[in-house]
Design goal:
Elements: H1 16-19, H2 22-38, H3 42-59, H4 63-67, H5 74-87, E1 92-96, E2 99-102, H6 103-128, H7 132-142, H8 153-183, H9 193-199, H10 201-224, H11 243-265
Helix pairs in contact: 2-3, 2-6, 2-7, 2-11, 3-6, 3-11, 5-6, 7-8, 8-10
Length: 267
Amino acid sequence: MIRDITLGQYYPVDSVLHRMDPRTKLFGTLVFIISLFLANNLLAYGVTTLFLAAAIRLSRVPVKFIVRGLKSILFLLLISVSFNLFLTPGTAVFQIGFLKVTWEGLELAGFMALRLIYLVIGSSVMTLTTTPNELTDGLEKSLGFLNKVGVPVHEVSMMMSIALRFIPILIEETDKIMKAQMARGADFESGNLIQKAKSMVPLLVPLFISAFRRATDLAMAMEARCYHGGEGRTKMKPLRYAGRDRVAYVVYLIYLALIIVCRRLME
């Protein structure tokens, strides 16, 4: 389960998406998220499915590797679907005791499940095809206008990049600690919910200690290299748009227009 988390990992392969400017991918991810909240019918979700499938195809990342990250949100997905399924008023399909399933609930639960799944997959495609350094540069360049109102864009981008970079490291650390505890007789599977929560204590304590130690080492390394923020710093690899990025922006706008048209047609 721990290794099933793909968000924040980078999958090194040569593809069109890997070569694109990080600003283009960030904007595309934002457009995709907006489109998921605009979509309210099967036609619109069909367009989002085609767009996401094309992005996965262009990324050349194995579908099994991307879909594996859905296991980490399975519990959240079940809760969301259950609430929408049983608590949405409307025309009843069937009723068991006080639990009533309606046609409106079925529709809303289905769209909510698709929305959550596509959100995770779309975000994973962006992080799998973008290195943390590229992501930092892209965020800093895209949000540079906020510097004029006093927002420390470079520092915020750096914190987000470090957080994403630490996700796979902490996942690997958790896996090592879990295997070590299991070798000493720890049981993380059996028992009820409270017993499982108690069994996680021997895992969380060393994990937090390791995380704080890594954070301290990182802070000391940055101070030793005289890091004092982004003001006046130059980039080793300046970001420059290529022809594929301009084409991608046009595709994004066409895609968003299609979603709006599909939404209007079905109203």
